[in-house]
Amino acid sequence: MTRQRKQYLLRIPQELYDIYEAWAADEFRSVNAQFEAVLMDAASRTGRLRRRPRRDDAAGSDDAG
Question: What gap in Å lies between CA 62 and CA 29, rounded to an integer?
């Protein structure tokens, strides 16, 4: 099942966009993915987001190795 995403127009200063663009390149992400990663991290750190296990983590958790 595909995760649904909300499209949202974001207006930010060019200087801030440039910072995120460089940061995204450092982490081999798109600028959009970098924005999402930073927002998810902030929501998680403040206790507003409970992270769900990744599909590959959940599938491999029962393996006794």
Answer: 30
